[in-house]
Amino acid sequence: MQKILLGSHVSMSKPDYLLGSARSAIGFKANTFMFYTGAPQNSIRTPLNRLRIPEFHQYLKEHDINIGNLVIHAPYIINIGSNENQKHAIATQILKTEVYRTKEIGCSYLVLHPGNAIGISKEKAIQNIAKAINEINQINKDVIICLETMSGKGSEIGRTFEELKQIINLIKNKHLIGVCLDTCHINDAGYDDKDIDQVLEGFDRIIGLHYLKVIHLNDSKNKKGANKDRHENIGYGTIGFETLLKYVHDQRLIDIPKILETPWWGGQPLYKQEIEILRSKIWKDYRK
């Protein structure tokens, strides 16, 4: 029987860095997880030689976690959609650094918010995004940059599958590009993700399911089409437990890492409880 790949976002901080991240994930009973290689709000990064990478690798082996199923998230501050030369160049360099760090840590998937069309058309921003990724992929041979589906706030690119496909069409090395589907984001963008068959069939028709590499599994505080991006705990939002359960257990998605980014409750993460109910398929009120 194939393993369901289910985990959460975990923090990375000194003194244990990556080793601490892996220990947190194991504490949540996860077999995959996602982390940032530094603060998501900036590009300041701890040198790789301090991240305890060899111990991290050994710990993963001891707990039967395949590093190929782990996910790194790029900083939020990157906007390779920018049309200002200096801002675009800086954003491209930050992303290039994250790709390098992802490879050196040993992971394959780097999730990226595609960017924003600030003062320009979406078409121009899409061209700028593809330009940056193509430049990076001239030296990147291993890391798959996964464009995240977005909720549609402001001038975000990636609100629709069509926008992501337009970027993918412009990428030269197609094996180095993928998509991260966020269930909260597509709900807030207007997709009816209660109908998982409709969502996956539309994704396959427009983009191709072979490009789907990561799922962010989140409930939503918002009604469909709100364009707000406010995550909720599994089963307490407008998407609901039964729907999110389908994304976990659908055979079309079985090999895809599914990552929880749900809110803390009472000052504590609820990832362990959420993973438990999603694996067991049995709902219980865990937020007390």
Query: How far is it from the N-terminal to the C-terminal residue, by CA?
Result: 34 Å
| Fraction in helix | 25-40%
Spatial order of strands in the largest sheet = 1-2-3-4-5-6-7-10
The mean pLDDT is 97
The largest sheet, given as strand count, sense and whether it forms a barrel, is: 8 strands, parallel, barrel
Morphology: globular
Radius of gyration over C-alpha positions, nearest whole angstrom: 18 Å
Number of β-strand runs: 10
**Number of DSSP helices?**
9
Judged by helices, strands and strand pairing, the structural class is alpha/beta
Strand content: 5-15%
In terms of per-residue confidence, which ranges show pLDDT below 50 for 5 or more consecutive residues?
none
Order of helices and strands: EHEHEHEHEHEHHEEEHEH
List the helices and strands and how they pair.
Blueprint: E1 6-9, H1 17-27, E2 32-35, H2 53-62, E3 71-73, H3 85-105, E4 109-112, H4 122-136, E5 144-148, H5 161-170, E6 177-182, H6 183-189, H7 196-206, E7 212-217, E8 219-220, E9 231-232, H8 241-249, E10 258-260, H9 271-280
Parallel strand pairs: 1-2, 1-10, 2-3, 3-4, 4-5, 5-6, 6-7, 7-10
Antiparallel strand pairs: 8-9
Helix pairs in contact: 1-2, 3-4, 4-5
Task: Describe the structure in your own words.
The chain is an alpha/beta fold and 288 residues long. The chain is built from 9 helices and 10 strands. The protein has helices spanning 17-27, 53-62, 85-105, 122-136, 161-170, 183-189, 196-206, 241-249, 271-280; strands at residues 6-9, 32-35, 71-73, 109-112, 144-148, 177-182, 212-217, 219-220, 231-232, 258-260. The protein has an 8-stranded parallel β-barrel, surrounded by 5 helices. A two-stranded antiparallel ribbon has the order 8-9. Helix 2 links the parallel strand 2 (32-35) and strand 3. The protein starts with 5 loop residues before the first strand and ends in an 8-residue tail after the last helix. The relative contact order is 0.13. The model has no long low-confidence stretch (mean pLDDT 97).
